[in-house]
Amino acid sequence: MFVLGIDPGLTRCGFGLIEGSLEGVESFRAHRAGVIETDPLMAVEKRLSQLLVELRALLEDTTPDAVVVERVFYQRNAKTAIPVAQASGVAVALAGAREVPVRQFTAQQVKLAVTGYGAASKAQVQGMVTRICGLSHVPEPPDAADALALAITYFMIERTERRYPSVRVS
């Protein structure tokens, strides 16, 4: 099974494709990770359009079985939250249009699933992603590592929900 994690952002949108299984041995293989970047000097509609085109191509190229997008849970700065929410909406809509199941998790849920500690640092999450996927180095840039962590979270949470059907993580 292939899961595409998307760490939404208007300037830098991270993506990471993980192969794993919902049954049996817990092993993960990172197939692809990177970022889609837009020019902050461009108009917002042009940047969102570029993101739409590049995410559509990514979905067509990777054909994931599921997509995970980081949920905007809390932002102190509305100037940051709004573009992240817009980028998130593009990713969710594209996956929905392709009829690919979408899950959304907060940063805290990702930290808990990947490291076992909901207040883990970015460096701790990146280190665990590297270890879990058997990579020789930490994925760069950090947005790519965050996207891989989102995809890993999908497997962790789906496995738990399948073992305990009465438990559903929102």
Strand and helix layout:
Elements: E1 2-7, E2 12-19, E3 29-37, H1 44-62, E4 66-70, H2 78-97, E5 102-105, H3 107-115, H4 122-132, H5 142-163
Describe this structure in words.
By secondary structure, this protein is α/β, with parallel strands linked by helices. It contains five helices and five strands. It has helices spanning 44-62, 78-97, 107-115, 122-132, 142-163, and strands at residues 2-7, 12-19, 29-37, 66-70, 102-105. A five-stranded mixed β-sheet has the order 3-2-1-4-5. α1 runs parallel beside α2 (78-97), α3 crosses α5 and α4 (122-132) packs across α5 (142-163). It starts with a strand and ends in a 7-residue tail after the last helix. The mean pLDDT is 93.
Strand order of the largest sheet: 3-2-1-4-5
Q: How would you name the oligomeric state of the polypeptide chains in this document?
A: single chain
Overall geometry = globular
Number of domains: 1
CATH class: Alpha Beta
CATH homologous superfamily - what is it? Ribonuclease H-like superfamily/Ribonuclease H
Assign the CATH architecture: 2-Layer Sandwich
N- and C-termini, Cα separation? 21 Å
Give helix % range. 40-55%
CATH third-level topology: Nucleotidyltransferase, domain 5
Return the string of H and E elements.
EEEHEHEHHH
Low-confidence stretches: none
Summed up, the helix count is 5
Number of strands: 5
Major sheet: 5 strands, mixed
Strand content: 15-25%
The helix-and-strand class reads alpha/beta
Instruction: Please compute the radius of gyration using only Cα atoms.
Output: 15 Å
